[in-house]
Amino acid sequence: MPAPYATPEDLRTVLLDAGLLVQTRTDGLYHRSGDFEGVLQGVERYAAEQRTDATAPRRWFPPIMARDDFLRTDYLRSFPDLVGSVDVFTGGDQEHKQLLAELEEGRDWTLALDPAEVVLSSSICHSLYGTLPTGIPDDGLLHECCGFAFRHEPSLDPARMQSFRMYEFVLVGTPAQAVAHRDLWLQRGLDSLAALGLSVRSDAANDPFFGRVGRMLAANQLHAELKYEVLIDLTEAKPTAIASANYHEDHFGLPFGLTTPDGEVAHSACFGYGLERITLALFATHGTDVTGWPGEVRSLLGC
Amino acid sequence: MTVKDQIRAILGQHAKLSTDISAVGDGDDLYAAGMTSHASVTVMLACEDEWDIEFPQQMLKKSTFASVDAIAAALAELDITDGVGSGVSS
Lengths: 303, 90
Known about the structure:
The complex is a heterodimer of chains A (303) and B (90).
Chain A (H helix, E strand, L loop, with lengths): L7 H10 L3 E3 L6 E3 L1 H16 L8 E3 L3 E3 H6 L2 H4 L6 E4 L4 H12 L9 E7 L20 E10 L12 E11 L1 H20 L6 E5 L5 H13 L3 E6 L7 E10 L17 E8 H12 L8 H7 L2
Parallel strand pairs in A: 3-7
Antiparallel strand pairs in A: 1-2, 4-6, 5-6, 7-8, 8-12, 9-10, 10-11, 11-12
Helix pairs in contact in A: 2-8
Chain B lengths: L2 H12 L22 H15 L16 H10 L13
């Protein structure tokens, strides 16, 4: 199926004109309309319904996470350009006066702030690992989690938002359990998204690791086929990933001290539905008016 | 000290192998010996520091750092061989 739009800018213009997204002063930061959010919440429910184990705990995370957990993920080493650290004011009256003077004179008032004990969430499952029991049971630990992620990458491509949500299925266990989870969910993800009338396919992918070192990490990740993305052509420019299936090896098990019953470091894998991007894909594919969408799709999403 | 000795010293310090580097043969797979993807990057950077070189883009891949022999071969392509010194040949 050909891409419905020629360029990301064309898609953006249509979404803004339809009022589905509202532009702000900052690229990559949008307000969502009631219609957009209604579909997104339908997508979130639909993603959650794909669960294989009705006993797996579900957690919704706030858009911030503990700084210590963030540091343990080693995100700073691989993606320093995407990080959002939170600064807060901890001074007294005197420092407040100075801060206002700096502001008044157009100087850098943020120098009066200090790093908080929290940062903006780098990814959804990053919030999870530090709260798990360190002894992973025989069958592995399955969790579902949903929340916001922040990526500082201002762009005019509506699919590249600075703040977005994902619904993830995370498994921590043995290497074999983690790989099996990744592979099972890649197929479930593809099937469930195709059922929404989306022309999806999968391909091996790499994360956008930073710098020269990052190019080597990206090549390694691609070579080892650790990451797969569910792709769709929304524009002719490049495919858009609307979900991803990731095998992390021991990247999180090691720093968070997670071990399997045989005493080995636990491995992990996650599958994430990108809620904003799937919602964008639905509007791009089926049109900006939900009432005109195929009945089956509206019924699956309850919208 | 030969180039391979220097490579071994770097691996001993940065590769985080599950066995001692002296037990690893020149042709043995370092990843099978426990070197992680992240550790291989640290090894790459340590080689660049040691010989004051920069690996070109096409060498920035897993196989370049898969064994002592592979690293020595990559360095040889950049004219780092026994007798050349530390990359600052006169």
